[in-house]
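=== RUN LOG ===
request id: a7f3
mode: sequence -> structure
chains: 1
length: 319
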Amino acid sequence: MSTPQHKIGSGFGHGSTADEVLEGLDLTGKLALVTGGYSGLGLETTRALVKAGARVVVPARRPQAAQEALSGLAGVEVGELDLADLASVHAFADEFLATGRSIDLQINNAAVMACPETRVGPGWEAQFATNHLGHFALTNRLWPALAADGGARVVSVSSSGHRNSDIRWDDPQFEQGYDKWAAYGQAKTANSLFAVQLDALGKDSGVRAFALHPGGILTPLQRHLPREEMVGFGWIDEDGNPLQPDVFKSPEAGAATQVWAATSPQLDGQGGVFCEDCEIAELSTDDAPGVRPYAVDPASAARLWTLSAELTGVDAFSK
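=== RESULT ===
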């Protein structure tokens, strides 16, 4: 069994931009939180939300770099947050909650991809820890702000990379041999399953959750990949110029699906689904676009939630 993955005829598509999906929406008075909202897709997301009237909080591992990148935008504030460090997650959440503000839109955008084997915290594999566990802990700690007014949305930025691996239940921390792409795949599957279970737990409080594949975009996310590897994939030529213009998106188009999932009235009353190209994705078990069934499986989502709560010691829904 999986979530209802069926297109809804949004009218948007592969080339739609964040500004286009926000056209006509007034986000004045809304507060958005965008992790990693100062680089790559996160920066474009922040720009688009500010343009539509939202105030945006950007938690950043490098606050000074974030301040510089966001210096031309009004209505943005930067906080310090390292998703790989639970103490940092708690400190940021405590500081935010102390302001008494509610969160209308939370976009869990920050990520690392295909990095060399790295251990953080109590020995956790860094991609699973940063991309999933850090966001899991952050969202649970911020739950009072998300549930305060009802109607909040939490958007989890996954990837088609989820196809590289289901959750490795017998070895989620890759203690029996590391593969950077399998580790990335597991983390992106975790991002999707997190949205499924958060939606199931949060919808009675008016909080809905979505996951998505933003598309292929060349951003600083690729910083750990050698040029020859990207050439081998056919992403760039020997001089570093992007190839496959019909596949890769501009950053403005890459940010569109997460902005659409966070704001579109077309998704009112829905949640727990995986999106791509500003649409709800279809299920896919082959090379066609879409989401693998294991990444939207409610039983796996509940199992991952339990594991994540055990690892982080955080669960807003524990009784």
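=== NOTES ===
DSSP finds eleven helices and ten strands in the chain.
The two ends are 27 Å apart (CA to CA).
=== END ===
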